[in-house]
Design brief:
The complex is a heterodimer. Chain A has one domain: Rossmann fold. The radius of gyration of chain A is 18 Å and the shape is globular. Chain A starts with 5 loop residues before the first strand and ends with a helix. The relative contact order of chain A is 0.17. Chain A has a six-stranded mixed sheet, sandwiched between helices. In chain A, strands 2-1-4-5 form a four-stranded antiparallel sheet, with helices on one face. Helix content of chain A is 38%, strand content 24%. By secondary structure, chain B is mainly α. In chain B, helix 3 packs antiparallel against helix 4, helix 3 packs antiparallel against helix 9 and helix 4 packs across helix 6. The longest helix of chain B has 41 residues. Chain B starts with a helix and ends with a helix. The chains are: A alpha/beta, B mainly alpha. Chains A and B meet through helix 2 and helix 3 of A and helix 7 and helix 8 of B.
Chain lengths: 249, 243
């Protein structure tokens, strides 16, 4: 039995007095793809940001490769280099060209030479059909292209774990597929991923396991076929019912 | 205007303040003093822009580890903003040289400029800080997520965007400083206003003040026009970007 890539134990988080996550347990094995579903405000985003140590947690433990990253003994900057996170709103740096967005991390954090970093960045861009955008500023790109660049930027430091925070929610419907295909490609390459998403069809296709979050708790989890076809909890049934009614599954 | 020009005392005032003869007589000395104003202004401005940015960056660092640094900067900004600048110039300009410390400059120009830098940096740091806070939190998160430290995130991601947001406010500070350098006059430094004052003391004619005013206007009005031009251009660019 291998050590889980990511293991979360009774994680809790509150903003002021509002409880956002309570007693969350979650395990992600290497090369697994786990999707987080649930309505807005159910805690999906917060969970991902806690894992990336962008938000301090109130209680519980998060372990990466069996080592606690929330005990305060590890350097958060090092932990973050093990993971890549992609946000809903792309968050590219608007004052930098695409290529500089991607090489900033490798150059400043790993001390790579500009030549080396740029060569690798261009290879990555090529891989995602973005080569000709390398020297453009982000505002010249479509939303789908910007989001793919954001994925490349997160991949640039060769993470072991990728976190996706509703990465298609801000996109025009016709641009959603190009981003989802990139994530499918990553799955094929064996990347471990934790994906918060509202794209149920995508979650069903791509994931090894789906977790339904409700009011800061993981109410139910299981393989996509079971969870989508035969949900056990009334709240899960209600949620999926509404998704079907909206024609989103 | 009409009221002024028709007042009975106007001919006297005109002789006292707007004499072409005295303007030409006083102008060379006022101009050479004004050149010192320009030099002090340029040196002070560069130092202020750098020092204030350092202050603002320290103030923007988060987490308990940086609390002592933040506390020092907040105290500095609070204290300095609470003291009238003229008082600070007098204190440093007369006080420090009087200490006769070895290795410490005794030049009043030096301490006058130092007082300006100390005072303006406190205000300018707050301008920068407003800019830093105007950059969306998601930019900071992205920067941290790729492994940058807080200082690196500020330096490479936040501050470049922040500065762009506050350039009009910084230019406004520039106009203000350009005039406030004349305050070192109280230290007996022979800058433009001092030369005008000396001329007045010698001739009992005030036209030399007008000469000084003209010189200050020659610098500040173009900066003000440039600020408006820049703001307008920036607004258009942002509109073009959001469509």
């Amino acid at each position: 039995m291998s050590v889980p890539k990511l293991e979360i134990e009774s994680l809790s988080k509150a903003f002021e007095s509002k409880v956002v996550l309570s007693d969350v347990d979650l395990k992600v094995d290497p090369h697994d793809v786990v999707c987080l579903i649930g309505s807005s405000g159910s805690g999906k985003s917060t969970l991902l940001k806690c894992i990336n140590l962008l938000i301090p947690i109130d209680g519980g433990d998060i372990r990466l490769d069996g080592l606690s990253i929330t005990s305060g003994e590890v350097n958060p900057n090092q932990v973050r280099q093990e993971m890549g996170i992609v946000f809903q709103a792309f968050n590219l740096f608007p004052h930098m060209k695409v290529i500089d967005n991607i090489t900033l991390g490798p150059r400043k954090v790993h001390g790579e030479d500009r030549d080396v970093a740029e060569e690798r960045a261009r290879e990555l861009l090529d891989q995602f059909n973005l080569s000709e955008k390398a020297d453009d500023y982000p505002d010249r790109l479509s939303g789908g292209q910007q989001q793919r660049v954001a994925i490349v930027r997160a991949l640039a430091h060769q993470p072991q774990l990728m976190l996706f925070d509703e990465v298609t929610s801000a996109l025009d419907p016709e641009l959603v597929a190009e981003v989802l295909n990139v994530i499918r490609g990553l799955k094929e390459s064996g990347m471990t991923m934790l994906i918060a998403t509202h794209e149920m069809g995508f979650a069903r296709d791509v994931s090894d396991r789906v977790c339904f979050l409700d009011q800061g708790k993981i109410l139910e989890q299981g393989p996509p076929n079971e969870l989508f076809k035969n949900p056990q909890q009334p709240r899960t049934r209600q949620f999926l019912q509404r998704i079907v009614e909206a024609g989103r599954l | 205007m009409w009221v002024v020009l028709t007042s009975e005392a106007w001919p006297t005032v005109q002789r006292q303040f707007f004499s072409w003869f005295h303007f030409r007589e006083s102008f060379p000395d006022v101009l050479s003093g004004f050149w010192l104003d320009i030099q002090m202004f340029l040196v002070a401005e560069v130092l202020i822009l750098v020092f204030a940015l350092v202050l603002a960056m320290i103030r923007s660092l988060r987490g308990p580890a940086f609390f002592p640094l933040r506390a020092i900067v907040v105290t500095y900004i609070d204290l300095i903003r609470g003291i009238p600048m003229l008082l600070l110039i007098l204190l440093l300009g007369f006080g420090v040289p009087a200490l006769q410390l070895s290795g410490v400059p005794t030049s009043r120009i030096f301490w006058g400029v130092a007082a300006l830098v100390i005072s303006y940096s406190a205000y300018t740091a707050e301008v920068y800080r407003a800019g830093i806070e105007s950059v969306h939190e998601s930019q900071r998160m992205s920067a941290r997520s790729i492994g940058l430290t807080q200082v690196q995130a500020l330096r490479f991601v936040i501050v470049p965007q922040a500065i762009r947001n506050v350039i009009p406010a910084l230019l406004n500070g520039l106009v203000s400083l350009q005039k406030d350098v004349a305050l070192v006059f109280v230290l007996g430094v022979r800058e433009g206003l001092a030369e005008a004052d000396i001329y007045n003391a010698r001739t009992f004619n005030y036209t030399s003040y007008i000469a000084a005013a003209v010189l200050f206007l020659l610098i500040s009005v173009p900066i003000a026009r440039f600020t408006d031009w820049y703001t307008e251009r920036d607004r258009r660019r942002r509109q073009a970007m959001s469509t």
